[in-house]
Design goal:
The chain is mainly alpha-helical. It has a domain of 86 residues: Fusion Protein Consisting Of Minor Coat Protein, Glycine Rich Linker, Tola, And A His Tag, Chain: A, Domain 2, CATH 3.30.1150. Helices cover 73% and strands 7% of the residues. Strands 2-1-3 form a three-stranded antiparallel β-sheet, with helices on one face. It starts with a helix and ends with a strand.
Length: 296
């Protein structure tokens, strides 16, 4: 507000003077009209009006109207002048701001150019250092590759010697193992032949029938005869056992009895575990097949 008064005090002073002048003219006009007012008369009283007085009153009003118009015109001109000066000041300030912005833009452009030059210099320096490091790394790798190749050649030679020795040792061990395996096969074959001969001898001596008879007798002793069992019962029983005679599984594969009879026979076999051992170990069989035929 203070800056506005300082910048426009001339316009404000002129406007104030014009308002004072207009107020003075208006006051003088009112005083003159009061002095020239006609005396009061009754409503029925006739009035004689002098034409010269009317002409004088009209001239005063015209002068007052003219004065008012002159004051208004001066105020309008003063306002236009004030607006023009305000616009000129604004234009001047706008130009100053524009000039300041252009100066700042030029300074910023110069700064950016300087920054770009520094960046380019830094990039060239970094590239040169990178190239130097890459060259050093290339030379180091070349030396390392040469050393690795020499070491690899030495390793290949050492591995070839080791493989040759291992091959010779493997051939020697294979020959020994083949001989040992051949001997074991011959011994196993001889053992099988001996067992077959011994089993055949045992069977010929009636030991197998004796072994089957012992199993049949033990199962019959543990059998609970069901009511549905008829005379002349005969069933084939398949048994899986361990070398100690422990029954692993039992199945009645053929029988002239009903389901209750078959279940009773299987239960009798399980109760007979472990089964009697064979009189000759060579007669052992994991899977046995015997005939269950109890006396009537």
């Amino acid at each position: 507000m203070t800056d506005f008064l300082k910048q426009n005090w001339t316009y404000l002073l002129g406007a104030a003077l014009l308002h004072v002048l207009f107020a003075g003219i208006f006051g003088l006009t009112m005083i003159s009209m009061a002095r020239n007012a006609p005396p009061p008369v009754l409503a029925i009283q006739a009035v004689l009006v002098d034409s010269s007085q009317l002409l004088g009153a009209g001239t005063k009003r015209e002068k007052q109207e003219q004065a008012r118009k002159e004051v208004a015109e001066r105020e309008r001109l003063a306002e236009e002048q004030r607006q023009k000066q305000t616009k000129d000041q604004q234009d001047k300030k706008q130009k100053e701001l524009q000039a300041q912005r252009e100066s700042e833009q030029r300074a910023e452009q110069e700064r950016q150019v300087e920054v770009k030059q520094k960046q380019e210099q830094e990039q060239r320096r970094v590239q040169e250092e990178q190239q130097a490091r890459e060259q050093q790394e290339t030379e180091r790798k070349r030396a390392a590759d040469t050393q690795r190749q020499q070491q690899a050649e030495a390793d290949r030679q050492r591995v070839a010697d080791i493989e040759r020795k291992q091959k010779e040792e493997a051939q020697r061990r294979k020959a020994a193992e083949d001989a040992k395996l051949q001997s074991a096969r011959e011994n196993e074959l001889k053992k099988q032949i001996d067992e077959e001969e011994g089993r055949t001898q045992a069977e010929n001596a009636g030991l197998l029938n004796q072994y089957i008879g012992l199993i049949q007798q033990q199962v019959v002793r543990n059998w609970n005869r069901p009511p549905s069992a008829r005379s002349g019962l005969e069933c084939q029983v398949k048994v899986a056992q361990t070398p100690a005679g422990v029954v692993l599984s039992v199945q009645v594969v053929a029988c002239n009895g009903d389901a209750a009879v078959k279940q009773s026979i299987e239960a009798a076999v399980m109760r007979s575990s472990p089964l009697p051992p064979p009189p000759d170990p060579r007669l052992y069989e994991r899977n046995l097949l015997f005939v269950f035929k109890p006396a009537d």
